[in-house]
Amino acid sequence: MNVLSTGFNGLFILEPKVLGDARGYFMESYNRQTLLKAGIDITFIQDNQSSSKKGVLRGLHFQQAPYAQTKLVRALSGSILDVAVDLRKAEPTFGQHFSIELSGENKKQLLVPKGFAHGFLVLSDIAEVYYKCDEFYKPEADGGIHYKSAGIDWKFSDDMLILSDKDKNLPDLKTAKFQF
Question: How many domains does the chain have?
């Protein structure tokens, strides 16, 4: 597995080595030793999976400290535009975002550290997204920022986006409350 830098402190792309033949493929999707060798020491304790149709935008979400989560995100099938927004005020990348297409085909993963808002847009007809977390979900620590507030090119017009009422009403980056 290759661990690639993104230019954001702690935000990495993981590219698995995929071994394919006439039967299909095999890949190692997670290896703690590989991450430790890259200086990444994370213990994941919860896995989540979602299925969404084209145009669904989930996010941009985070959990407040001390329940902030690191996430390892991948698309099992279909494709998504995966986005992370840096909310760490002490970082030079504060308020900036990183986006990448994750798909069942490219098998890339995004490691999103604590202190980022995270979300994704489904680009394909359907996408199944799977992610690991290093903290349990705590509803009382739930937070987010509005999808339009970080200058992200979501690739779709607003009328094509499908959002939850919660996500439609999240505060913008300038007024959201967070401590990272």
Answer: 1
**Can you say whether the dihedral through the CA atoms of 132, 134, 136, 139 is positive or negative?**
negative
For 6, counting Cβ atoms within 10 Å of its Cβ (0-12 exposed, 13-18 middle, 19+ buried), the class is middle
Structure tokens at 131: 């992610």
Confidence of residue 96 (pLDDT cuts 50, 70, 90): very high
Cβ-based neighbour number of residue 36 at 10 Å:
11
Contact 38, 3 (CB under 8 A): yes
Q: Let me know: does 72 contact 131? Beta carbons within 8 Å.
A: yes
CATH number reported for the structural domain that contains residue 57 in this entry? 2.60.120.10
Q: Is residue 119 part of a domain?
A: yes
Q: How confident is the model at residue 139 (pLDDT cuts 50, 70, 90)?
A: very high
pTM of the model: 0.95
Per the structure, the complete domain to which residue 97 belongs is given by 43-168
Cβ-count burial 137-172 (b if 16+ within 10 Å, e if not): eeeebebbbbbebbebebebeeeebebeeebeebee
Banded model confidence at residue 37, pLDDT cuts 50, 70, 90: very high
Query: Does residue 11 fall inside a structural domain?
Result: no
Q: What is the set of active-site residues?
A: 61, 131
